[in-house]
Design goal:
heterodimer; A: 201 residues; alpha/beta; Rossmann fold; B: 254 residues; TIM Barrel; 8-stranded parallel β-barrel; 10 helices; 12 strands
């Protein structure tokens, strides 16, 4: 299995590469639109400001090939901003458009709690999840974000709560995404990546 | 279900070795950073901090190599810092494998550095390290490894740092550092209850009860320690089991 990692210039790419390597998967970093069409699996990591990710997708002409590859059924895993960008838009950069693969808007977490939501939190499983298969319901995952999918719209297979409930795991057909960082979440995080690799194989 | 309190071992490194001082002085060798990183990762540490405390800039390439080697061992987040003066310094540290960058003296001297880092890497990657020392009726910010006063109120500086884009505060009590008489609860509570970002308490830890106290009375979101972990006085796993038994929410690895 070779995972094609969209390297848009920011993000947590080296740690994702290392995590995949530990699981025996090869990965290929790319920012070239042409390399998506034949990918076995696509992974979009992301940290920082969502505007940087959206602008990079547009300036590097990655948006259309990415959406096309996902529509053709290539297994896709989004991490952190890679989850948020799947929605219509984000309060963090209201004038920019997300990939619109899921309905709804990304919103700021409420300010009655400390932000960023930084550290280890648990998730509440909402329905059967392929990504969470074999993982203890009490497992902790590492989060580092201030925005989230608060409009749940029923597509979250697991949620987490920090001031408000938000989507921690979304999965629909070949599209998988997590708000936390599996590459930084110890053994349960490795299991998430392993489950994705199995689903993609 | 809520956010767990974090336990963070800190590796102060000089070149290829971990060192530890008392009150920022009297450094001694405390081990191999790569071996310690692997051990803490396995024992259930929630993050790791690696700081370059070498006096000389000549040692910088060695520090970056240490970050690379440490990052390769970890399945938890890594924060690195010490001597980061410019955006380019920070990029080198992030490229070497750090998830977050900590800045201290350079940010006091040039506030703009915090905004630059926050714009480039996001607030979640910018940790403002503040070394605070008790003055009459406030805490003074100390710079240059805790040796010089910046003539700045630590609370004012913490709030300013958050406004500039810091996503976390690493708050070290210069008075308590290395003393093992307990965290500075008054200092930590004073800052942590007045800023909107997580605060990591540092300096003075020895017993598991010190950690209970800093979470319950000091309002700390995370607690950092060094020598008690390096010297085997307090294994990370046993500490977390103690905290859990006392009702403090922590992540217990399976």
């Amino acid at each position: 299995m070779k995972v094609t990692i969209l390297d848009y210039g920011a993000g947590n790419v080296p740690s994702v590469e290392r995590a995949l390597q530990r699981l025996g998967a090869d990965s290929l970093r790319t920012s070239s639109p042409g390399s998506f069409s034949n990918a076995e699996a696509l992974l979009l990591p992301g940290v920082g400001h969502i505007a940087a990710l959206v602008r990079a997708l547009d300036e590097q002409h990655l948006r259309a090939p990415l959406v096309d590859a996902v529509h053709r059924g290539i297994p896709f895993l989004g991490i952190c901003l890679g989850l948020q960008v799947l929605f219509e838009s984000s309060e963090e950069a209201p004038h920019l458009h997300g990939l619109n693969l899921f309905p709804g808007r990304i919103s700021a977490l409420p300010s009655n709690v400390k932000l960023p939501h930084m550290g280890w939190n648990q998730v509440a499983v909402q329905r059967e999840s392929q990504l969470l298969a074999g993982i203890s319901p009490s497992a902790y995952f590492y989060f580092a974000h201030s925005y989230g999918a608060l409009d749940l719209n029923g597509h979250a297979s697991a949620t987490s709560t920090h001031g408000a409930e938000f989507a921690a795991v979304v999965e629909q057909k070949n599209i998988f995404a997590v708000q936390f960082h599996p590459e930084k979440s110890g053994d349960p995080g490795a299991r998430i990546l392993q489950n994705f690799l199995r689903l993609a194989a | 279900m809520s956010l767990a309190h974090r336990i963070i071992p800190c590796l102060d490194t000089d070149g290829e070795r971990v060192v530890k001082g008392v009150n920022f002085l009297a450094l001694r060798d405390a081990g191999d950073p790569v071996a310690l990183a692997a051990q803490y990762n396995a024992e259930g540490a929630d993050e790791l901090v690696v700081l370059d405390i070498a006096a000389s800039r000549d040692r910088r390439p060695t520090f970056l190599q240490t970050i690379r080697r440490v990052a390769a061992e970890l399945t938890i987040p890594l924060t690195a810092g010490g001597g980061i003066r410019t955006l380019e310094d920070a990029r080198a540290v992030v490229r070497a494998g750090a998830d977050k960058i900590t800045v201290n003296t350079a940010a006091v001297e040039r506030h703009e550095l915090i905004s630059q880092l926050s714009r480039e890497f996001g607030a979640q990657a910018v940790v403002l390290a503040i070394d605070a020392k008790r003055a009459d009726d406030y805490w003074d910010v100390m710079v240059r490894g805790g040796r010089e006063s910046a003539h700045l109120d630590a609370l004012v500086w913490a709030q300013r740092g958050v406004a500039l884009g810091a996503g976390e505060i690493l708050l070290t009590s210069v008075d308590r550092d290395g003393t093992q008489i307990g965290f500075d609860i008054a200092l930590t509570a004073a800052i942590s209850t007045q800023v909107s970002v997580p605060v990591i308490a540092s300096g003075g830890a020895k017993t598991p009860q010190h950690f209970v106290d800093i979470f319950e009375q000091g309002a700390a979101d995370a607690a950092l320690a060094a020598s008690i972990f390096h010297d085997g006085i307090q294994p990370v796993r046993a500490l977390k089991e103690f905290l859990s038994a006392r009702g403090v929410e922590v992540r217990l690895p399976c």
